[in-house]
Amino acid sequence: MSAMTVRSAFSDCATAAARTATVQSSPGHFLADGVNIRSGPGLGYTILGQGYNGETFTAHCAVANAEGHWYHLTTHRGNVTGYADQNYLFNDGGLLGNC
Question: What's the structural domain count of the chain?
Answer without folding.
Answer: 1
